[in-house]
Design goal:
Helices cover 28% and strands 17% of the residues. The protein is α+β, with helices and mostly antiparallel strands and 424 residues long. It has two domains: 260 residues, Beta-lactamase, CATH 3.40.710.10; 113 residues, Up-down Bundle (Methane Monooxygenase Hydroxylase, Chain G, domain 1), CATH 1.20.58. The strands form six sheets. The protein has a seven-stranded antiparallel β-sheet with strand order 3-2-1-17-16-15-14, sandwiched between helices. A two-stranded antiparallel sheet has the order 4-11. Strand 15 and strand 16 form a beta hairpin. The N and C termini lie far apart (57 Å).
Length: 424
């Protein structure tokens, strides 16, 4: 009897610590959180106009303030050909919106004392020892020279590592020749295989010299595996997404989730809106597909591989606004959140504000759209975007599935319309 009671108590304690939730965040009337319902309705009108003009198939938008959802809307189609309307719980490939979650996983291990941010990554991933930098002279063959120093964990977190992406004009073909994946295509191998291949290619510049968007966060996914002793997808699930109740966020869409996965579209001038080709798209040395979140895929890309919903991602964003916790579950300390959400580049990026996992607006240059200095967020390759604003205590999320976009800017429009709805 005592054993039964002990097990029951333990189960209840675990359930309280990692509850299974299905809601996004609590909902509230816009007026109660200082937003105008009439002005918020402009978001729906703008999205509907974009859908009607066949610039985009469909969009899910969400605005939360003071911890409550004041606007949550689904417009258009999740799959035009199948006649499937967009729903609030539609699942999206969030691509580079994976990066903040991976960065959070790294910071969890930092808080456990597993490493320092100034540690060279080669201490844990020896394949990055003694890095080389590619030199491409105006005449003659390219050659390599020793980097001025090694890549640190902080370099990876803030994109000052010297790594790049497959579309880079100097290193893109070398990445392709080495079978380095961007994470946006099927890959016969693991994150360990991909990072090992990446480490064998020269760097674009010596670490710490400049900011360059890159596969750095994919390397961090492998770092998490090595340091924690747990596969990256399992670490992210057990330490981030499950505790936050993000039940529709992961790397491989399940059979039960598959009907809710949005189709991807392209928009080319002269062709208009079309379904993404089954064979994928190749642009020089860079290739991408829409099936990398399906069963059979084995690369858990920390920089691009996750799928999610607007409701799930809102929970992740709210955790940051709350200083690292949500519903009594603490993921990060307040000090880690502070570090992640302030500019870490300094003079390295005189115009680029970037923290750890997030771009930061209005800290290096004036804002160019409605918002607040210090707001942070990022976007994804297939037309997704989120913004977290500590000053206004607000979250804005817009999710679509479109690339190339044909110049569509509905996500930026949604952000402006969310801010113009503030009425307090």
């Amino acid at each position: 009897m005592k054993t039964h009671l002990l097990l029951t108590t333990l189960a209840l304690a675990l359930a309280a610590r990692c509850p299974l939730r299905s809601q996004a965040l609590p909902e509230a009337k816009p007026e109660s959180v200082g937003l105008s319902p009439e002005r918020l309705a402009r978001i729906g009108a703008a999205v509907q106009r974009d859908v009607d003009q066949k610039n985009i198939a469909g969009v899910v938008t969400l605005v939360a303030r003071h911890g409550k959802v004041a606007w949550f809307d689904a417009r258009g189609s999740a799959d035009r050909e199948a006649g499937k309307p967009m729903q609030k719980d539609t699942i999206f490939r969030i691509c580079s919106m994976s990066k903040p979650l991976t960065s959070t996983a790294v910071m969890i291990l930092l808080e456990e004392g597993r490493f320092l941010l100034e540690d060279p990554v080669s201490k844990y991933l020896p394949e990055f020892k003694n890095p080389k930098v590619l030199v491409t002279p105006e005449q003659g063959e390219p050659y390599t020279i020793p980097a001025k120093r090694e890549i640190t964990i902080l370099d990876l977190l803030r994109h000052t590592s010297g790594l790049t992406y497959n579309w880079d004009p100097k290193l893109g073909q070398l990445y392709r020749d080495a079978h380095v994946s961007s994470g946006l295509e099927p890959y016969k191998g693991t994150i360990a295989d991909n990072v090992r291949s990446l480490a064998a290619v020269p760097l674009l510049f010596s670490p710490g010299e400049k900011w360059n968007y890159s596969l750095s966060i994919d390397v961090l996914g492998r770092l998490v595996e090595v340091v924690s002793g747990m596969p990256f997808d399992q670490f992210l699930k057990t330490r981030v997404t499950d505790p936050l109740g993000m039940k529709d966020t992961g790397f491989i869409v399940s059979d039960a989730q598959l009907p809710r996965l949005a189709a991807v579209y392209t928009y080319y001038d002269g062709k208009g809106l079309q379904r993404f080709p089954a064979a994928g798209i190749t642009e020089g040395p860079f290739s991408y597909t829409d099936d990398y979140v399906l069963k059979g895929h084995t690369l858990f890309s920390g920089g691009a591989g996750l799928f999610s919903t607007a409701g799930d991602y809102a929970r992740f964003c709210q955790m940051f606004l709350n200083g690292g916790e949500l519903d009594g579950v603490r993921i990060l300390s307040r000090k880690s959140v502070e570090l992640m959400t302030h500019d870490t580049l300094g003079k390295i990026g005189p115009e680029q504000g970037f923290g750890i996992g997030f771009g930061i607006s209005g800290v290096k240059a004036p804002l160019t759209e409605l918002g607040s200095p210090g707001q942070y967020g990022w976007g994804g390759f297939y037309d997704t975007l989120f913004t977290i604003d500590p000053k206004e205590d607000m979250i804005v999320i817009a999710l679509a599935q479109l690339h190339p976009t044909g110049g569509d800017v509905i996500e930026a429009v949604v952000q402006n319309l969310a801010y113009q709805a503030i009425a307090d």
